[in-house]
Amino acid sequence: MGRAKLPRKSTSIDMTAMCDVAFLLLSFFILTTKFKPSEAIAVTIPKSVAAKVAPNKDYVQVIIDKDGKVFLEMDDESMKEIIGNALNNTKSLGIDVKAFKKSLFFGASFAGMKSFLALPEDQRKGNLLPGIPVQDTAHNELTEWMSQVLSAYQGKTRPFFLVKGDNLAKFPAFKAVVTAFKKNDILKFQMVTAPEGVPVGTDLWKKAQSGEKREE
Amino acid sequence: MAEMDTSGGGHKKGPGVKKSKKLSTRVDLTPMVDLGFLLITFFIFTTTMSQATAMKLILPKDADKPEDQNKAKQSGVITILLGKDNHVFYYEGELDNSASNFKSSTFHDIREVLINKKNSVKELKDFVVILKPSEYCTYRNLVDILDEMTINVCTRYALVDITDIETQLVKRSDDMAAAQGN
Known about the structure:
The complex is a heterodimer.
Chain A: H1 16-32, E1 47-48, E2 59-64, E3 70-74, H2 77-91, H3 97-102, E4 105-106, H4 113-118, H5 141-152, E5 160-165, H6 171-183, E6 188-195, H7 203-209
Chain B: H1 30-46, E1 53-58, E2 77-82, E3 88-92, E4 103-105, H2 110-120, E5 128-133, H3 139-151, E6 157-159, H4 164-181
Parallel strand pairs in B: 2-5, 5-6
Antiparallel strand pairs in B: 2-3, 3-4
Protein backbone atom coordinates (compact mmCIF):
# COMPACT_ATOMS: atom_id res chain seq x y z
CA MET A 1 0.00 0.00 0.00
CA GLY A 2 1.45 3.24 -1.02
CA ARG A 3 0.86 6.17 1.19
CA ALA A 4 0.43 9.60 -0.17
CA LYS A 5 3.53 11.53 0.56
CA LEU A 6 2.94 14.71 2.42
CA PRO A 7 5.32 17.39 1.43
CA ARG A 8 7.35 18.46 4.39
CA LYS A 9 6.96 22.11 5.11
CA SER A 10 9.13 24.26 7.23
CA THR A 11 7.51 25.38 10.45
CA SER A 12 9.48 28.56 10.69
CA ILE A 13 7.41 31.51 9.64
CA ASP A 14 8.76 34.68 8.27
CA MET A 15 8.38 37.10 11.12
CA THR A 16 9.33 40.15 9.14
CA ALA A 17 5.78 41.12 8.28
CA MET A 18 4.65 40.75 11.84
CA CYS A 19 7.59 42.77 13.04
CA ASP A 20 6.65 45.49 10.61
CA VAL A 21 3.12 45.57 11.91
CA ALA A 22 4.25 45.63 15.52
CA PHE A 23 6.53 48.57 15.03
CA LEU A 24 4.05 50.36 12.84
CA LEU A 25 1.51 50.15 15.64
CA LEU A 26 4.13 51.16 18.13
CA SER A 27 5.09 54.25 16.20
CA PHE A 28 1.44 55.06 15.66
CA PHE A 29 0.74 54.96 19.36
CA ILE A 30 3.78 56.94 20.26
CA LEU A 31 3.03 59.63 17.74
CA THR A 32 -0.64 59.94 18.56
CA THR A 33 -0.07 60.16 22.30
CA LYS A 34 -0.60 63.69 23.44
CA PHE A 35 1.46 64.55 26.39
CA LYS A 36 -0.24 66.33 29.17
CA PRO A 37 1.12 69.81 29.39
CA SER A 38 2.82 70.15 32.70
CA GLU A 39 0.40 72.01 34.86
CA ALA A 40 1.45 74.83 37.04
CA ILE A 41 -1.39 74.16 39.42
CA ALA A 42 -1.60 70.62 40.66
CA VAL A 43 -5.22 69.53 40.79
CA THR A 44 -6.57 66.02 41.18
CA ILE A 45 -10.03 66.09 39.74
CA PRO A 46 -12.85 63.96 41.09
CA LYS A 47 -14.57 61.28 39.07
CA SER A 48 -18.07 61.34 37.72
CA VAL A 49 -20.23 59.43 35.29
CA ALA A 50 -20.58 62.48 33.07
CA ALA A 51 -19.83 61.47 29.51
CA LYS A 52 -19.52 64.81 27.82
CA VAL A 53 -15.98 65.80 26.97
CA ALA A 54 -14.92 69.04 28.57
CA PRO A 55 -14.55 71.86 26.08
CA ASN A 56 -10.97 72.79 25.33
CA LYS A 57 -11.68 75.93 23.37
CA ASP A 58 -13.35 79.16 24.34
CA TYR A 59 -13.37 78.45 27.99
CA VAL A 60 -12.98 80.40 31.16
CA GLN A 61 -11.85 78.06 33.84
CA VAL A 62 -11.79 78.61 37.56
CA ILE A 63 -9.37 76.30 39.30
CA ILE A 64 -9.67 75.51 42.97
CA ASP A 65 -6.62 73.81 44.38
CA LYS A 66 -6.46 71.59 47.43
CA ASP A 67 -5.88 74.49 49.78
CA GLY A 68 -8.92 76.30 48.46
CA LYS A 69 -6.91 78.82 46.48
CA VAL A 70 -8.63 80.04 43.37
CA PHE A 71 -7.07 80.67 39.99
CA LEU A 72 -8.51 81.88 36.74
CA GLU A 73 -7.51 80.46 33.41
CA MET A 74 -8.55 81.64 29.97
CA ASP A 75 -7.53 80.54 26.54
CA ASP A 76 -8.49 83.51 24.42
CA GLU A 77 -5.61 85.97 24.30
CA SER A 78 -7.52 88.78 22.64
CA MET A 79 -10.03 88.64 25.47
CA LYS A 80 -7.27 88.71 28.01
CA GLU A 81 -5.94 91.81 26.32
CA ILE A 82 -9.31 93.52 26.61
CA ILE A 83 -9.56 92.55 30.25
CA GLY A 84 -6.03 93.74 30.97
CA ASN A 85 -6.75 97.11 29.44
CA ALA A 86 -10.05 97.36 31.26
CA LEU A 87 -8.38 96.60 34.57
CA ASN A 88 -5.77 99.26 33.92
CA ASN A 89 -8.46 101.78 33.13
CA THR A 90 -10.88 101.08 35.94
CA LYS A 91 -8.49 100.19 38.71
CA SER A 92 -5.34 101.89 37.43
CA LEU A 93 -3.29 98.86 38.31
CA GLY A 94 -0.57 99.76 35.85
CA ILE A 95 -0.12 96.20 34.72
CA ASP A 96 1.81 95.17 31.68
CA VAL A 97 -0.93 94.16 29.25
CA LYS A 98 1.47 92.18 27.11
CA ALA A 99 2.49 90.00 30.03
CA PHE A 100 -1.13 89.81 31.13
CA LYS A 101 -2.13 88.58 27.71
CA LYS A 102 0.55 85.93 27.66
CA SER A 103 -0.06 84.70 31.16
CA LEU A 104 -1.74 81.31 31.12
CA PHE A 105 -3.57 81.88 34.34
CA PHE A 106 -4.05 84.48 37.02
CA GLY A 107 -3.53 83.79 40.65
CA ALA A 108 -3.22 86.96 42.63
CA SER A 109 -5.33 89.75 43.97
CA PHE A 110 -5.74 92.86 41.86
CA ALA A 111 -3.27 94.65 44.08
CA GLY A 112 -0.76 91.86 43.66
CA MET A 113 -1.31 91.46 39.94
CA LYS A 114 1.65 93.59 38.98
CA SER A 115 4.13 91.56 40.98
CA PHE A 116 2.46 88.35 39.81
CA LEU A 117 3.05 89.32 36.20
CA ALA A 118 6.61 90.31 37.01
CA LEU A 119 7.37 86.72 37.97
CA PRO A 120 8.90 84.63 35.23
CA GLU A 121 6.57 82.02 33.76
CA ASP A 122 8.33 79.04 35.31
CA GLN A 123 8.03 80.46 38.79
CA ARG A 124 4.28 80.83 38.63
CA LYS A 125 3.48 77.70 40.50
CA GLY A 126 0.13 77.22 42.14
CA ASN A 127 1.46 76.37 45.56
CA LEU A 128 3.58 79.52 45.76
CA LEU A 129 0.93 81.93 44.63
CA PRO A 130 -1.68 83.58 46.81
CA GLY A 131 -4.59 82.91 44.45
CA ILE A 132 -7.50 85.21 43.79
CA PRO A 133 -9.05 86.23 47.09
CA VAL A 134 -12.58 84.85 47.28
CA GLN A 135 -13.23 83.69 50.80
CA ASP A 136 -14.16 87.08 52.12
CA THR A 137 -17.68 87.58 50.80
CA ALA A 138 -17.41 91.34 50.87
CA HIS A 139 -14.26 91.35 48.77
CA ASN A 140 -14.78 88.40 46.52
CA GLU A 141 -12.50 89.50 43.72
CA LEU A 142 -13.66 86.70 41.46
CA THR A 143 -16.96 88.54 41.11
CA GLU A 144 -15.06 91.46 39.64
CA TRP A 145 -13.07 89.13 37.40
CA MET A 146 -16.19 87.50 36.10
CA SER A 147 -17.86 90.78 35.32
CA GLN A 148 -14.71 91.83 33.44
CA VAL A 149 -14.78 88.56 31.52
CA LEU A 150 -18.42 89.01 30.64
CA SER A 151 -17.94 92.56 29.46
CA ALA A 152 -14.98 91.45 27.35
CA TYR A 153 -17.12 88.79 25.76
CA GLN A 154 -20.00 91.18 25.24
CA GLY A 155 -21.57 90.75 21.84
CA LYS A 156 -19.85 87.45 21.30
CA THR A 157 -20.89 83.95 22.18
CA ARG A 158 -20.43 83.33 25.85
CA PRO A 159 -17.45 81.20 26.73
CA PHE A 160 -17.85 77.91 28.54
CA PHE A 161 -17.48 78.41 32.24
CA LEU A 162 -15.61 75.58 33.83
CA VAL A 163 -14.83 74.84 37.42
CA LYS A 164 -11.98 72.51 38.06
CA GLY A 165 -11.64 71.64 41.68
CA ASP A 166 -9.32 69.43 43.61
CA ASN A 167 -10.71 66.43 45.44
CA LEU A 168 -9.60 67.88 48.74
CA ALA A 169 -10.76 71.43 48.23
CA LYS A 170 -13.22 72.44 50.87
CA PHE A 171 -16.75 73.42 50.08
CA PRO A 172 -16.52 77.12 51.11
CA ALA A 173 -14.07 77.76 48.29
CA PHE A 174 -16.48 76.25 45.80
CA LYS A 175 -19.33 78.19 47.28
CA ALA A 176 -17.39 81.41 46.93
CA VAL A 177 -16.81 80.64 43.27
CA VAL A 178 -20.46 79.85 42.74
CA THR A 179 -21.43 83.07 44.48
CA ALA A 180 -19.17 85.00 42.14
CA PHE A 181 -20.83 83.28 39.19
CA LYS A 182 -24.30 83.90 40.47
CA LYS A 183 -23.68 87.58 41.08
CA ASN A 184 -22.83 87.90 37.41
CA ASP A 185 -25.80 85.83 36.30
CA ILE A 186 -23.63 82.99 35.16
CA LEU A 187 -26.02 80.24 36.01
CA LYS A 188 -24.70 77.55 33.73
CA PHE A 189 -21.31 76.11 34.24
CA GLN A 190 -19.55 72.82 33.99
CA MET A 191 -17.42 70.96 36.44
CA VAL A 192 -14.39 69.21 35.07
CA THR A 193 -14.20 65.59 36.14
CA ALA A 194 -12.50 62.39 35.19
CA PRO A 195 -14.71 59.79 33.55
CA GLU A 196 -16.01 56.81 35.48
CA GLY A 197 -18.22 53.91 34.52
CA VAL A 198 -21.90 53.95 35.38
CA PRO A 199 -22.56 51.51 38.26
CA VAL A 200 -24.42 48.42 37.10
CA GLY A 201 -28.05 48.13 38.12
CA THR A 202 -28.73 51.80 38.72
CA ASP A 203 -31.43 53.78 36.97
CA LEU A 204 -28.96 55.51 34.73
CA TRP A 205 -27.47 52.19 33.78
CA LYS A 206 -30.90 50.82 32.92
CA LYS A 207 -31.57 53.87 30.84
CA ALA A 208 -28.33 53.41 28.97
CA GLN A 209 -29.15 49.74 28.43
CA SER A 210 -32.50 50.52 26.92
CA GLY A 211 -30.76 52.85 24.54
CA GLU A 212 -32.26 56.00 25.90
CA LYS A 213 -30.20 59.07 25.41
CA ARG A 214 -29.16 60.80 28.52
CA GLU A 215 -29.73 64.48 28.84
CA GLU A 216 -26.65 66.41 29.70
CA MET B 1 12.76 41.09 2.71
CA ALA B 2 15.21 40.46 5.49
CA GLU B 3 17.36 38.26 3.36
CA MET B 4 20.11 39.24 1.02
CA ASP B 5 21.06 37.59 -2.11
CA THR B 6 24.19 35.68 -1.25
CA SER B 7 24.32 33.46 -4.26
CA GLY B 8 27.26 35.43 -5.64
CA GLY B 9 25.48 36.46 -8.79
CA GLY B 10 26.13 33.32 -10.74
CA HIS B 11 29.86 33.90 -10.79
CA LYS B 12 31.71 30.64 -10.95
CA LYS B 13 34.81 30.23 -8.92
CA GLY B 14 37.88 28.54 -10.24
CA PRO B 15 38.74 24.98 -9.35
CA GLY B 16 41.44 25.90 -6.84
CA VAL B 17 39.36 28.33 -4.92
CA LYS B 18 38.01 27.05 -1.69
CA LYS B 19 34.30 27.32 -1.45
CA SER B 20 33.42 29.67 1.37
CA LYS B 21 30.56 28.50 3.47
CA LYS B 22 27.36 30.30 2.66
CA LEU B 23 25.99 31.90 5.80
CA SER B 24 22.34 32.70 5.81
CA THR B 25 21.58 36.33 6.49
CA ARG B 26 18.13 35.42 7.56
CA VAL B 27 17.53 36.71 11.08
CA ASP B 28 15.02 35.27 13.41
CA LEU B 29 12.73 38.19 14.00
CA THR B 30 10.60 36.55 16.67
CA PRO B 31 12.26 38.30 19.64
CA MET B 32 11.98 41.60 17.84
CA VAL B 33 8.26 41.06 17.33
CA ASP B 34 8.00 40.18 21.00
CA LEU B 35 9.73 43.37 21.92
CA GLY B 36 7.52 45.36 19.59
CA PHE B 37 4.32 44.07 21.08
CA LEU B 38 5.66 44.41 24.57
CA LEU B 39 6.27 48.08 23.93
CA ILE B 40 2.84 48.48 22.39
CA THR B 41 1.19 46.96 25.42
CA PHE B 42 3.29 49.13 27.68
CA PHE B 43 2.28 52.28 25.87
CA ILE B 44 -1.36 51.34 25.76
CA PHE B 45 -1.45 50.68 29.45
CA THR B 46 0.46 53.74 30.49
CA THR B 47 -1.48 56.11 28.28
CA THR B 48 -4.30 57.74 30.12
CA MET B 49 -6.99 57.44 27.54
CA SER B 50 -9.28 59.52 29.60
CA GLN B 51 -10.08 62.96 28.43
CA ALA B 52 -11.56 65.11 31.10
CA THR B 53 -15.30 65.20 31.04
CA ALA B 54 -17.59 67.90 32.22
CA MET B 55 -20.54 67.78 34.50
CA LYS B 56 -23.12 70.40 33.85
CA LEU B 57 -24.59 72.28 36.73
CA ILE B 58 -27.31 74.81 36.27
CA LEU B 59 -27.96 77.08 39.18
CA PRO B 60 -31.33 78.51 39.96
CA LYS B 61 -31.64 82.22 40.01
CA ASP B 62 -31.81 83.49 43.54
CA ALA B 63 -35.39 84.14 44.43
CA ASP B 64 -35.64 87.42 46.24
CA LYS B 65 -39.10 86.91 47.65
CA PRO B 66 -39.89 83.81 49.65
CA GLU B 67 -43.12 83.27 47.75
CA ASP B 68 -41.14 82.95 44.52
CA GLN B 69 -39.27 79.99 45.84
CA ASN B 70 -40.10 76.56 44.65
CA LYS B 71 -42.30 74.60 46.91
CA ALA B 72 -41.81 70.93 47.41
CA LYS B 73 -44.16 68.42 48.94
CA GLN B 74 -42.85 67.28 52.27
CA SER B 75 -43.50 63.63 51.63
CA GLY B 76 -41.26 63.58 48.59
CA VAL B 77 -38.35 65.50 50.01
CA ILE B 78 -35.13 64.02 51.18
CA THR B 79 -32.35 66.22 52.46
CA ILE B 80 -28.79 65.07 52.25
CA LEU B 81 -26.13 66.72 54.35
CA LEU B 82 -22.44 66.34 53.79
CA GLY B 83 -20.08 66.36 56.71
CA LYS B 84 -16.43 66.01 57.46
CA ASP B 85 -14.43 62.89 56.51
CA ASN B 86 -16.89 61.72 53.85
CA HIS B 87 -19.78 61.52 56.27
CA VAL B 88 -23.25 61.69 54.84
CA PHE B 89 -26.42 62.41 56.77
CA TYR B 90 -29.95 62.55 55.60
CA TYR B 91 -33.47 63.08 56.74
CA GLU B 92 -36.77 62.68 55.02
CA GLY B 93 -39.34 65.39 55.00
CA GLU B 94 -38.71 68.06 57.55
CA LEU B 95 -36.25 67.86 60.36
CA ASP B 96 -38.23 67.36 63.54
CA ASN B 97 -37.41 69.15 66.74
CA SER B 98 -35.63 66.33 68.47
CA ALA B 99 -33.77 65.49 65.27
CA SER B 100 -34.92 61.90 65.55
CA ASN B 101 -35.19 61.46 61.80
CA PHE B 102 -31.64 62.65 61.29
CA LYS B 103 -29.84 59.58 60.06
CA SER B 104 -26.29 58.81 59.24
CA SER B 105 -25.17 57.13 56.06
CA THR B 106 -22.17 56.73 53.82
CA PHE B 107 -21.45 57.49 50.20
CA HIS B 108 -21.86 53.83 49.51
CA ASP B 109 -25.23 53.42 51.20
CA ILE B 110 -26.79 56.68 50.18
CA ARG B 111 -27.62 55.23 46.79
CA GLU B 112 -29.88 52.67 48.36
CA VAL B 113 -31.52 55.33 50.47
CA LEU B 114 -32.19 57.40 47.38
CA ILE B 115 -33.54 54.46 45.41
CA ASN B 116 -35.84 53.45 48.26
CA LYS B 117 -37.10 56.98 48.64
CA LYS B 118 -37.60 57.31 44.91
CA ASN B 119 -39.63 54.13 44.79
CA SER B 120 -41.73 55.01 47.80
CA VAL B 121 -42.73 58.41 46.49
CA LYS B 122 -46.11 58.18 44.82
CA GLU B 123 -45.56 60.69 42.10
CA LEU B 124 -42.11 60.97 40.66
CA LYS B 125 -42.43 64.70 40.18
CA ASP B 126 -42.75 65.14 43.92
CA PHE B 127 -39.40 63.53 44.51
CA VAL B 128 -36.99 66.28 45.41
CA VAL B 129 -33.52 65.95 46.78
CA ILE B 130 -32.05 68.81 48.73
CA LEU B 131 -28.31 68.83 49.06
CA LYS B 132 -26.77 70.73 51.89
CA PRO B 133 -23.01 70.59 51.96
CA SER B 134 -21.50 71.75 55.19
CA GLU B 135 -18.34 73.80 55.21
CA TYR B 136 -16.29 70.77 56.20
CA CYS B 137 -17.07 68.62 53.22
CA THR B 138 -14.74 68.51 50.28
CA TYR B 139 -15.30 69.32 46.66
CA ARG B 140 -15.04 65.66 45.90
CA ASN B 141 -17.97 64.90 48.21
CA LEU B 142 -20.02 67.46 46.41
CA VAL B 143 -19.21 66.07 42.99
CA ASP B 144 -19.90 62.57 44.25
CA ILE B 145 -23.31 63.47 45.53
CA LEU B 146 -24.18 65.39 42.39
CA ASP B 147 -23.04 62.38 40.46
CA GLU B 148 -25.31 60.26 42.56
CA MET B 149 -28.18 62.43 41.33
CA THR B 150 -27.23 61.62 37.76
CA ILE B 151 -26.75 57.96 38.49
CA ASN B 152 -30.15 57.59 40.11
CA VAL B 153 -31.81 59.90 37.63
CA CYS B 154 -33.03 62.35 40.22
CA THR B 155 -34.24 65.14 38.02
CA ARG B 156 -35.19 67.53 40.78
CA TYR B 157 -32.46 68.43 43.16
CA ALA B 158 -31.24 71.61 44.68
CA LEU B 159 -28.08 72.82 46.30
CA VAL B 160 -29.14 74.71 49.34
CA ASP B 161 -27.27 76.53 52.08
CA ILE B 162 -27.08 74.66 55.31
CA THR B 163 -28.87 76.07 58.34
CA ASP B 164 -27.24 76.63 61.71
CA ILE B 165 -29.16 73.83 63.40
CA GLU B 166 -28.10 71.41 60.72
CA THR B 167 -24.50 72.58 60.93
CA GLN B 168 -24.51 71.84 64.63
CA LEU B 169 -26.07 68.45 64.10
CA VAL B 170 -23.56 67.56 61.43
CA LYS B 171 -20.71 68.78 63.55
CA ARG B 172 -21.87 66.83 66.58
CA SER B 173 -22.29 63.65 64.57
CA ASP B 174 -18.92 64.19 62.96
CA ASP B 175 -17.26 64.57 66.32
CA MET B 176 -19.06 61.53 67.62
CA ALA B 177 -17.90 59.46 64.68
CA ALA B 178 -14.37 60.74 65.17
CA ALA B 179 -14.48 59.78 68.84
CA GLN B 180 -15.70 56.33 67.97
CA GLY B 181 -12.97 55.94 65.44
CA ASN B 182 -10.31 56.45 68.09
